[in-house]
Specification:
By secondary structure, the protein is mainly beta. The chain has 3 helices and 34 strands.
Length: 449
């Protein structure tokens, strides 16, 4: 493979000199010769947006940092997706459009210097949506491996309309209060493999998306595997939606740890979006200090039109192509400790129940010093703490070998549900009216058969 060292094209690794032009020259030369490796040696290289082409690997040596400029002029306006809708946006820090065999690898660092962009966003002064850190668009055979990504201006990795994506052994660090700094967001992609990653961010750690109702081209996100990852802080460990109009199907999540994420596995959508989330399998997960481990909410109100009566009304509406659906979800071999608000929250539409859900071998314990919060974002829900499972507008649940400890009140609250089957479930250490744990004895364990 031909190697193109950016220093040979004029780049200076002092963190001050702009290397945008030098990197462009290296990319141009690499493209002219049919591809190769853009090599970033040790040093700190200040640059604007980088545009990769087919058959190209951007390789960052250990000790190398690409430090992305705070000069808005370094980010041309391009057409891409932002929150599920195609529109003009500032170019991402690393871009690849309609390319194949594109890689970002090595042991170096990509630093988006996001504080500049977060300030503009909070002041509502940005003319176009902020850059993402890495955003391949309509690409095939994408590899992101080994690198550390930090301080992203917005979403950190957003692969859009891509096929065969591998994201392995990366580290993502964004401040916990940084706005919309999701970790990894595959959007309308097929065949996605995420493994061995550590993600500590200010929004969702991983969010799987498929466009909104305003997306003209409805493309599913399908065949996604997530394994061997640790996820810290963030609003959710693995999240589905709320942009899911093109469908999210065939997803497996295994061997992961969620530490201090607001929520664990979270599905969210609403009327008007349409699309379905189905055939999701979650296995071998440990969660600690989450607000709520499991959420499936079809009345999610955030985003445009979220205040419309059509979104929040709890009365049934006709089922149309605008009606979203959650079904065939499996949760197995999961431990969630120090849970704050509720053990689980499933709220289907009055006209489209959440259906075909399986829980098997799940242990959940409430935090003694639980913090009050809303497990799901929908109109009318009150903050809660140390509550059990709330299941409404749901059917065909099999709940087997589930233990819930330290709940204040009933373990399962069911409303408007059909065919909910419990077996070998146990409630331990229920709380009395003063919020204290009742002494545990065999007679105080409740079995539901």
């Amino acid at each position: 493979m031909a190697i193109y060292n950016i220093i040979d094209f004029g780049a200076v690794g002092d963190g001050v000199t702009s290397c945008t032009g030098a990197i462009k020259k290296a990319v141009k030369e690499c493209t002219a010769n049919g591809g190769g490796k853009i090599y970033v040696p040790a040093g700190t290289f200040l640059t604007g947006a980088v545009f990769l082409e087919s058959n190209m690997e951007l390789y960052l040596e250990a000790g190398a940092t690409l430090l992305f400029s705070n000069d808005i002029e370094e980010y041309p306006v391009v057409t891409s997706r932002w929150e599920g809708v195609k529109r003009d946006c500032y170019a991402s820090c690393i871009n690849a459009d309609n390319a194949e065999n594109v890689s970002v690898t090595g042991r170096g660092i990509l630093d988006g210097q996001g504080a500049f962009w977060w300030k503009i966003f909070r002041a509502k002064e940005n003319k176009y949506p902020r850059p993402k850190l890495i955003a391949p668009y309509e690409c095939k055979n994408v590899l992101i491996s080994g690198v550390t990504l930090k301080n992203s201006p917005s979403w950190t990795i957003n692969t859009i309309l891509c096929d065969n994506v591998t994201i392995d052994n990366i580290t993502i660090n964004n401040p916990s209060d940084s706005p919309n700094t999701d970790g990894i967001d595959p959007e309308s992609c097929n065949n996605v493999h995420i493994s061995n990653c550590h993600i500590d961010v200010g929004d969702d750690c991983i969010a799987i998306k498929a466009g909104t109702e305003d997306t003209e081209k409805r493309v599913p996100c399908s065949n996604v595997t997530i394994t061997n990852c640790t996820m810290v802080h963030g609003h959710g460990g693995v999240v589905f939606g709320s942009e899911m109009s093109g469908d999210i199907v065939n997803v497996t999540i295994s061997n992961c740890i969620f530490e201090g994420t607001d929520r664990g596995i979270r599905l969210k959508s609403r009327r008007g979006r349409g699309g379905k989330v189905e055939d999701i399998r979650v296995n071998n997960i440990v969660m600690n200090n989450v607000l709520c481990p499991f959420i499936a909410n079809l009345y999610y109100f955030c985003g445009p039109k979220g205040d419309d009566k059509y979104v929040w009304d709890k009365n049934p509406y006709p089922v149309t192509e605008e009606t979203p659906a959650f079904r065939r979800l499996s949760f197995a071999n999961i431990t969630a400790k120090n849970v704050n608000a509720a053990a689980g929250y499933f709220y289907g539409l009055a006209e489209m129940f959440v259906e075909d859900i399986t829980f098997d071998n799940v242990y959940i314990s409430m935090a003694d010093d639980a913090k009050e919060g809303c497990p799901a974002m929908l109109a009318g829900i009150e903050p809660m703490k140390q509550k059990g499972f709330f299941i409404r507008n749901s059917k065909n649940f099999i709940i087997n070998n589930v233990t819930v400890a330290g709940v204040d009140g009933n373990v399962f609250e069911l409303e408007n549900c059909n065919d909910i089957v419990f077996s070998n479930c146990k409630m331990r250490e229920n709380r009395n009216q003063n919020g204290k744990l009742v002494e545990q004895t065999a007679s105080k364990e409740v079995f539901i058969n």
